[in-house]
Amino acid sequence: MTPSRNLGLALAFAALALMYALPAIAPRAIVQDLFGILTLLVLAMNWNMLAGFAGLVSVGQQAFVGIGAYAMFAAIILLDLDPLIGVLIGGLAAAAFSIPMAFFAFRLNGAYFAIGTWVVADIARLAISQWKALGGGTGTSLPKGTARDMAFVEQIKEMLDVSNAAAADALTYWLMLTLAVAMLVASYIFLRSRMGLGLQAIRDNENAARSVGVDPVKLKALVFLLTAFGTGLCGALAFIQITRVTPDAAFSVIDWTAFVIFITVIGGIGTLPGPIIGVMVFYALQRALADYGTIYLIVLGCLGIAVMLFARRGLWGLFTDRTGIDLLPLTHRPPQPAAHKPEAPRAA
Amino acid sequence: MILIDTLAQGLLLGGLYALFAAGLSLVFGIMRLVNLAHGDLIILGAYLILTVTTLTGLHPFLAVLLAAPLMFALGWLLQTHLLNRVLGTDILPPLLVTFGLSVVIQNGLLSTFTADSRKLTAGPIEAQSLDLGIVTLGIMPLLTFASAVAVIFALNQLFYRTALGRAFRATSDDAVTAQLMGIRPQRIFAMATGIALVVATIAALYLGTRANFDPSIGPARLLYAFEAVIIGGLGSLWGTLAGGIVIGMAQAIGASINPEWQILSGHVAFVLVLLIRPRGLFPRAND
């Protein structure tokens, strides 16, 4: 472990502690802003696992966001459950949906896979538009006071001495932050594990990986299922904050997939810190160009193209190439040579 | 009776989708490039025709003759300066570059032309129809279908009867060996994308005269087009026409049961075909 890496990790932990303390010290608007960023970050980390490590370029992640959101709404409105249980159900529903989706999409390769997942997401959107109990095509809202009655809101309210709404914001913010941290830690552990090594081996050369006994379909399916769960949780949590769901908003390819793809690509696809860097760039762009309508989207698209042309590993890849610093390295040292020394060559 | 009418309408709608898909199929077949911006390029073509008609007062059918060379040049430039640089064994860069292009075109159109719905006006021909006894068919849908068949016939002739077509096929089969025979794949690819955008302009003409369009509708057209290409099978142009017809018919049947089911039935038909035949109906090449 190098000193620079220690310093980097110490800084990262300090930043994390500050982020956890934020609802106590910062105004509500900032907490809400950060919640939006964290949502995109969690989605980006999930997509990065899929596309960057498992080689599954999905353009259908909005399916899991939408299904997570709708399952959460159904749990609250139809079953009268606590929203936090609703979020869990949202994640599970998305994971459950990913199984039939995988059976279909895994028959398709590469580009076919991208289009196939997109079509399945559109099918999910159109099918849910037919669900009249949740408002059909026009959508529905959470019942009034849902956020206020959520578990733990009362305690947070007393602890921080704030209004109900601010306490609910703080709770969803902490949950999303925890989800992001959990996602990062889980990805790191997974990718450093035997399975993760197998996954990267498949990405780099599928035939070679198979020849040493890695089962590509099983590993990819596992990643697809787990990221569907993470994406579903994230979608459900995001829509507690939004409080209103419509098929078009919940299954929006731009909001839940296009942004996420650009964030990952600009930050550095196939690197763990990439999505974090990408989401910062995205937020900075959005704020800097807020007054010029959709210009930031054009800039974002151009940046994404430029990264693909000139720096395939994104900004984080550039940074590690230049400085040699890698906070979350995924490379393994080659095995040490055998203990006994080879015999010295004899003089001829 | 109603069923025959529905099927006939679906068949003609399939012609429109085949037009959306033909350019995509050509590019996909020759260089395995998945152009996620194809739908938005069609919409760009529609706005280009619109601009030509407003500037010159020409009829849309004549304005296409001016718009098509411009779109060809755009395709050539895009391929030479952007897409050729990201083609390779890794499918991620071309996917992401064209996805970026899609967002750029969409929002560029939005800030230039606003989100208002526009339409190309073709005059009295829009309302005319042909009574065939069993069914009555609109002239515009018939013309669309005829154009689709003509475009696909022409592309096939180009593909199998000309030196350029031979170069297309050779590059598609094995780009390295083609290079040894004096073919420059990069030039061939640029030609292919140029031609694809000319076809996209023809598609844009019918898209714009038959219904309203706005900058946001590109991605949905891309999905229909891709469904047609994939159902038809990689590299088969007539297959693409068949794929378009499958989607069109499925949509028409779905819509006749419940208007809300139109798009859904098209997608479901796509999924069903792929579950039965993962490589499409008439695959020519291996991918």
Classify the helix fraction of chain B into a percent range.
over 70%
Strand content of chain B: under 5%
Which chain pair has the greatest contact? A-B, 43 and 41 residues
Strand order of the largest sheet of chain A: 1-2
Report the uncertain regions of chain B: none
Along the chain, the helix and strand elements of chain A come as: HHHHHEHHHHHEHHHHH
Order of helices and strands of chain B: HHHHEEHHHHHHH
- First and last CA, distance of chain A: 44 Å
- State the end-to-end distance of chain B: 42 Å
Put simply, the count of helices of chain B is 11
Uncertain segments of chain A are none
Q: Tell me, rounded to a whole number, the average pLDDT of chain A.
A: 88
Characterize the structure shown.
The complex is a heterodimer of chains A (348) and B (287). Helices cover 71% and strands 1% of the residues of chain A. Chain A is mainly α and 348 residues long. Chain A has a two-stranded antiparallel ribbon with strand order 1-2. In chain A, helix 3 runs antiparallel to helix 4 (83-105) and helix 12 crosses helix 14. The radius of gyration of chain A is 22 Å and the shape is globular. Chain A starts with a helix and ends in a 25-residue tail after the last helix. The relative contact order of chain A is 0.15. The model of chain A has no long low-confidence stretch (mean pLDDT 88). Chain B is mainly α and 287 residues long. Chain B has a two-stranded antiparallel sheet with strand order 1-2. In chain B, a hairpin with a 4-residue loop joins strand 1 and strand 2 (136-138). The mean pLDDT of chain B is 90. Chain A binds chain B through residues 51, 57, 59, 104, 107-112, 114-116, 118-120, 122-123, 126-127, 129-130, 137, 253-254, 258, 261-262, 265, 269, 293-295, 297-298, 300-302, 304-305, 308-309, 312, and chain B through 28, 32, 34, 36, 82, 85-86, 91-93, 95-97, 99-104, 106-108, 110-111, 219, 223, 226-227, 230, 260-261, 263-264, 267-268, 270-271, 274-275, 278, 287.
